[in-house]
Automatic annotation (TrEMBL):
It is found in: Membrane. It is a multi-pass membrane protein. One of its GO terms (molecular function) is NADH dehydrogenase activity. The chain crosses the membrane at residues 20-46, 91-111, 131-150, 171-190, 210-230, 261-283, 295-316, 328-350. It comes from Ferroplasma acidiphilum. It holds the Pfam family NADHdh. GO terms for biological process: aerobic respiration. The keyword Repressor does not apply. This is NADH-quinone oxidoreductase subunit H. Keywords: Membrane, Transmembrane, Transmembrane helix.
Length: 351
């Protein structure tokens, strides 16, 4: 049983096709609302956590403990005048933030969230190739950054875009090689040694993950985590938006809600990164009584990874662009190749 089928049963009086269509729509809206509330909670936690480390109070004026501060910030951004460059490429300029935020939200719809008691599985997408779809969407997000940098006709934004492209190429290759190792390992049961299906499906990988793959290949977990955090463009890896050098990189010429969409997209990528790592390397929703509380297992693992990312964000200094790129090409790429060979040997000689 799944949430989709539950909603279908509740709407069965509308007929088979209409009830299924509405069930998909309602479930998608539920997931999007959950993701949106999570974004707000993460931004609030980050601001309070950063304030505590910097010996400040943080949000504390609007609402109890400053809980309504983000709502006030939202209305402030909506009310701000959107100042746009005179020589901009108008279509690309307006399209860039939409690509970033829509691509991030669509990626959340592909995640297998596990089971939750009476409602069953909360997964929206039931496909055999969700892993490919996920990284296909992630490869679209840099297009928004490129459009934002090029369309504004600003040198700061252009330099930020070029840095962002160098960052994505440097870290996406070792990241995808690490994912290939996961696909290889999940293609065979390490209990019986027999070939199994579902290696390209996120839900299939979780169901095959009797032992978390992070235990089987910790090097792959480390490579993937560094690569995904670097892709998320959070400090100290925010080469495309480094404020000490490029003002704000490819978002320099954005203001108001368009800048807010880029800001939300940044936290969305941190959250999405933590979800993907939890699913691929930490067992996802697997655990005792997973058919009842599997969703909470996945959520707890994800929140822990998010907090680790926040610690990295607020404590480590930004590194130089050349050393940053070298980290991807000279260290993570050879290590990811070695991890791939290890995964092949693990699958070849498994019993």
């Amino acid at each position: 049983m799944s949430l989709l089928l539950r909603i279908h049963q509740w709407l069965s009086f509308l007929g088979y096709d209409a009830s299924f269509g509405l069930a998909y729509l309602i479930q998608t809206i539920v997931v999007i609302v959950f993701v949106g509330i999570s974004f707000v909670a993460l931004i609030y936690i980050f601001r309070k956590y950063m304030a505590r480390i910097q010996r400040r109070v943080g949000p504390n004026r609007v609402g109890k403990f400053g809980l309504l501060q983000l709502i006030a910030d939202l209305f402030k951004l909506l009310g701000k005048e959107s100042i746009m460059p005179a020589k901009r490429d108008d279509l690309a300029y307006k399209l860039a933030p939409a690509i970033v935020i829509i691509g991030t939200i669509l990626a959340f719809i592909l995640l297998p969230y596990g089971d939750l008691a009476y409602f069953g599985s909360i997964a929206v997408t039931h496909s055999r190739v969700t892993l490919i779809l996920m990284f296909g969407l992630l490869s679209i997000l840099p297009i928004g950054e490129i459009l934002a940098g090029i369309s504004t006709k600003s040198n700061y934004a252009l330099l930020g875009t070029m840095r962002g492209v160098a960052k994505d190429i440097s870290f996406e290759i070792p990241m995808m090689i690490s994912v290939l190792a996961i696909v290889m390992i999940s293609s065979r049961s390490y209990v019986t040694g027999t070939a199994i299906t579902g290696g390209l499906s996120l839900s299939g990988i979780v169901s095959n993950e009797v032992i978390p793959y992070g235990i089987i290949e910790p090097l792959g977990l480390l490579i993937f985590y560094i690569s995904m955090v670097a892709r998320a463009s959070m400090s100290p890896f925010d080469m495309g938006e480094s404020d000490s050098e490029l003002i704000s990189g490819y978002t320099t010429e954005y203001s108001g809600m368009r800048f807010g969409l880029f800001y939300v997209g940044l936290f969305g990528m941190v959250y999405l990164t933590s979800f993907i790592i939890s699913i691929l390397y930490l067992g996802g929703a697997n655990g005792p009584y997973e058919s009842y509380v599997g969703f909470f297992y996945l959520l707890i693992k994800t929140v822990i990874l998010v907090l680790i990312a926040f610690v990295v964000w607020v404590t480590l200094p930004r590194i130089r662009i050349d050393r940053f790129v070298n980290l991807g090409w000279k260290y993570l790429l050879p290590l990811s190749m070695a991890n791939l060979v290890y995964a092949g040997l693990f699958v070849l000689y498994i019993r």
